[in-house]
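User: Predict the structure for this protein chain, please.
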Amino acid sequence: MRPEPGELVLHPRGLGDGDHVLEIRAGGGFLGSHAVRRFQFVVDRQPPAVRLLRAAVARQWQPLAFEGQLSEPGTIVVNGKRVAVKDDRFVVRYAPPLPAALTLTATDLAGNRAVQRFPVRVVPRTPAAPIRAVHVTAYGWADLQLRRGVLALIAQRRINAVEIDIKDEGGLVGFDPSIPLGRRIGAVRKIYDLKALIAQLHAKGIRVIGRLVCFRDPVLASQAWKSGKRDWVIQTPDGQAYSGYGGFTNFANPEVRKYQIDIAVAAAKDGIDDVLYDYVRRPDGPISSMVFSGLHGTPEHAIVEFLHETRLALRPYGTFLGASVFGVAADRPHEVAQDIPQIARQVDYVSPMVYPSHWGPGEYNVPDPNAEPYLIVQRSLKVFQHDVNGTGARLVPWLQDFTLGVTYGPEQVRAQIQAAHDDGVNEYLLWDPAVTYTAGALTADAPVAKMKLPQGGDEFAAAPASKPAPKPKPVARAQAAPLATPTGLKPNELGVVPVIMHHEIRPDRVGAYDQTPQEFRTELQTLWQRHYWPVRAADLVDGNLGKVPAGWTPVVLTFDDSTQYQFFYEADGKTIKPTTAIGVYLQFVQAHPKWPMAGTFYVLREPFAGIPQGPEILRWLVAHGFELGDHTYDHIPLNTLDATKVQLELAKGADVIESAVSGYRIRTMALPLGAIPHPASLAVRGSWDGKAYGPFGVFLAGAEPSHSPYSVKFDPAAIPRIRSSHLPWNGANDFTWNMWLHQLTANPQLRYVSDGDPKHLTFPRDELSGLQRRFRAEARTY
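Assistant: Here is the predicted structure, written as structure tokens:
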């Protein structure tokens, strides 16, 4: 204890957390009197803990919503903004663009503070098929011989996408957009008809990517300088125009940016699938030799800002946005103002130019990169993978199909493709400025969205239209043995229900959302062994789970897009292909006769590749216990449409089903790409042209199990789904089904477990407050 002016101050040492008593004794007063005072106090230096109840995961271009919980009463600040806390829980919502991470600062009532950082993971948008593309110049497409070479690659199924220059390195615009500035400076040349090009390639199932060279633009730079708009051009320190590349425009200038975006939007309106920016950077070289008029902040930030502006402009059209970047940008972002992690958060994919000929000796410890194409591509892409992980961007690298120093042929091109594949990157763009590609380097199995091959050459060829469509064969099932009741799981009909989202079941598994037949077969086997019982999405929405056997957990299997990889025939037009989703399912239920035929197929405008048997297949599915749900007519993200078009999509989508299955009542829909319309109620019900639809239960593309339909937390207008898994699962927190299977196996108390009694709902007594009031009469607690 130390005396201080007017008081004695105690500075105790070594006190632990908890309750303490301070006793003060005073003696030697009048006639030897003494006094004792006791003070009770608590030492609390333990900071509060924060946990996320829902992972910070969102889809590209979609908002993020997550819920968290404090370990004790207090306040929470998320990325500098205070958030309301109720019953120690809080909810945070972010509109795109999403932060790379969430910094949560929790403060308890004693003033103790804890800071935790959680990464935000964004799931990329993906095309119908992974991109295998070749670069074509505007004049290359206009040249009959070169165009025939590209079309031959398409016919041989060696590529499934064409990248066409819409504005090239010379500043020339190859099509005919209505952009006054482009016409005024003489940039617009109309070398080809973009709408006709897109129609021709789309008819073949080929994706069209528009390459737009941004800031390297001799035409715009020259005209701007001549007209006195010198702030449109990058300058030297002495006030002269920067002469490199024939002229480089200023990425910090709003008018220069607008010109690029106007061209991109014009191409999007014409129907192009992707806009791929190139030269979206500053010139390489010492930054001290360049002046960027009007630049606020760093060049890297200005480039990211420009990409964000483009992203917003393209969003109404659903057009994908890519950015071509220097190979060295992953390690040395300041050399060309390309910050890869930040760029990746604004685009659908990053396209690093990892051409072996462009690397210097010793890069990534490769002595001669040009002579070792596999090694340099494999090592450099690993760095880019790290930079884009969780950002919402894919990697679609530029690979070399030209000779520069070392002769390149099939072996060298194949080596690069294999290197990318071995890194887990199954998309690429080939570059040859002469537009003469090495067909022998490319396998003849490029997947396409739709294709029509000569009869007998396509394993998914439709039956001849002149013949009546044969009906699917009925299913024969083996005699079922009595179903064993699982032991060890107490009933809990307020637990969670997994809804597993499937897309294509195909041997080549080209997409992140696809499974091989063996992966799907293994999934079914695991569900059976772990006592999961298939039900339809409508059963979940309607709370119709009374038929689930005692001790089993309901699971909803959904299949999006009604593709030929879900249900199709052998060449005889009658036998269901065993490698399709239904083919695998039939084999499984024949071996496990007690397991029900149940699941939900979300249907688009041309079910099962538009084959004549499409309507009959829909009727077959209904007759065999499956549900049909609305997936819209054209699979357009509903958040890009106005209210009228949203209702058109859903009403016409419903008509596809109702026209095939007379009197069918559609109970559920799945949002294309998980995109929620504005207002969200339009997904539930609406009408268009006198045709009403709904009410629907609405299924998202989320990453967690659904609440029980009897729980107060259940929202039939926003039911999350879980993506199906690839094998082997590596234990990562990827929010696919295998991760959740592991979580629910480790925490069985979270599972919905049926009591086998359709008249009652059984669950632990302490969960009673979580039951919807309308089900109280059926409650049975323990």
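The mean pLDDT is 90.
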